[in-house]
Amino acid sequence: MKRFYVSALTAVSIIASAPLFAQQADTSPASVQAGDYALDSSHTLVRFTVDHFGISEFFGTFPGASGTLSLDPKNIASAKLDVSVPVASVSTTNKTLDEELASADWFDAATYPTMRFVSTKVVKTGDRTADVFGNLTMHGVTHPVVLKATFKAGAVNPMNKTYTLGFNATGVVKRTAFGVSKYAPLVSDETTIAITAAFEKQAD
Question: Which residue intervals define the domain Lipid/polyisoprenoid-binding YceI-like in the entry (predicted)?
Fold first, then answer.
């Protein structure tokens, strides 16, 4: 009975503290702290989705991204974003496929180890949304890409005490335009990108 009582108290304590963590996150863009941010690689993920032979959708991820964000909530148009993604980190549910995707037949990670997106213009489209125009360099080729970004929230991370911003973004690219043409169009040329990103504020 005593053990159950202690466990019950622990559960109540966790439940009671949960709202405190939730309340820290502020979804209002006006509350965002202006400044320079660094991408939190541990809590950022780039996902791609293709149509697989018209049978199903198939996706993979690129963990390990790094980058910077300069942001002033009073002047969204002045925002600057620069993000790099290690190509060799490509990950699916299949180790053999991961190795194939990193090979010269696909992304050729040995020759082109990094994908990079550098913003050229940011246009506010709503209270919490913006179109981020930029240049994507992949497989040695650079093309303009538009990412549709949504601000999720800002808060002090309760674990490391760092002020952090969260965003989601989506975009579409044609992989053949970057020279990644294996099995196209049986494996769709059009590739959807979905990004969840966290940025940590740097010291002034």
Answer: 36-200
Report the SS3 class of residue 94.
coil
With CA atoms as reference, report the closest residue to 98 among 84, 85, 83, 87. Answer: 87
Instruction: Kindly report the pTM of this predicted structure.
Output: 0.87
Structure tokens at 14: 């966790």
Residue 174, both tokens: 């044609």
pLDDT above 70 (res 16): no
How far apart are alpha carbons 41 and 85 in whole angstroms? 10
Give the CATH number of domain 27-201; options: 3.40.50.300, 2.40.128.110, 2.60.40.10, 1.10.10.10: 2.40.128.110
Q: In the structure, what pLDDT confidence band is assigned to residue 6 with cuts at 50, 70 and 90? A: very low
Cβ proximity of 54 and 183 under 8 Å? no
| pLDDT at residue 81, as a whole number | 98
For the beta carbon of residue 54, count every other beta carbon within 10 angstroms: 9
**Calpha distance 149→152 (Å, rounded):** 9
Q: Which residue has the tokens 């969204």?
A: 76
Q: Where are the domains of the chain?
A: 27-201
